[in-house]
Amino acid sequence: MSDLKQRVLTGIVGLVLLFSILYLGGIYLRGAIFIISIIAILEFKNAFKNIKININMLPIIIGCISLFVFNIVGISYDFSIIVVLIISLIYLVFSVKYDFNSTAVSIFTFIYIPYSLNLLNTFVGTPFLLLVFIIAFCTDTFAYFVGSNFGKHKLLERVSPKKSIEGAIGGVLGAVLVSIVYFYFVKIPINLTSISLTVIASVAGQIGDLTASKIKRLTGIKDYGKILPGHGGIMDRFDSTIMVIPFVYILYFLLYLY
Question: Which residues span the membrane (predicted)?
């Protein structure tokens, strides 16, 4: 099977699974987030091994479990960061295996991947859950097509040679236009706040993509894994989505919780 066919087939299966999990929500969503988080963390661990940084899995796993439990009992996710921080610092002080770089990257990994992903649970039962993926996927899709057809100026060649300024702008505009249509149908207010946060979330998604690409270059890998045929690893697929989530969370907070 060709790479393109693999990519398309994986994409179709992935979308079916994604929308099924989003529809079911609850324990299915929490379980999916937990599994995706663990796989993505392992991908990070394997990548950073190449530059002699040893990610400490124990505090991160405990943090993931605490996120899962805290969501069920209604405790703030912020406490999970404290748990990971304390355990990581204990290892830094008493273990010779984890130096400061390893400890810092371990804490970063927890906040960057499982903590951000678990914010999705906040949106269960609201249109903001689907909005995350609309912004992330539309940004990627429009950036690809605009960049492929009109891209002339490199965005950040030393990090991602194929990305263009035109593609980046097209990704933001496409995501905003589709989001506005979505806002109209699901009754999310269309105002300066919602449009501004959508723009920021789209830009953040592209920064997430570039961040993941920079880490791949620093660690000398082509893809984070092979679990998704034609796409690579979990981080290759969710790198932009992870950065979109916090800004959709801010939008949700400003519109409905503040």
Answer: 12-41, 53-73, 79-96, 103-120, 126-146, 167-186, 238-257
CA quadruple 44, 50, 55, 57: dihedral sign: positive
The pLDDT tens digits of the residues spanning 180-227 come to 999 999 999 999 999 999 999 999 999 999 999 999 999 999 888 787
Domain spans of the chain?
26-124, 126-258
Residue-wise pLDDT for 64-76, tens only, equals: 999 988 888 878 8
For the residues of the chain, what is the DSSP string, one character each? --HHHHHHHHHHHHHHHHHHHHHH-HHHHHHHHHHHHHHHHHHHHHHHHTTT----HHHHHHHHHHHHHHHHHT--THHHHHHHHHHHHHHHHH-SS--HHHHHHHHHHHIIIIIHHHGGGGGTTSTHHHHHHHHHHHHHHHHHHHHHHH--SEEETTTEEEEEHHHHHHHHHHHHHHHHHHHHHHT---SHHHHHHHHHHHHHHHHHHHHHHHHHHHHT-S-S-SSBTTTBSHHHHHHHHHHHHHHHHHHHIIIII-
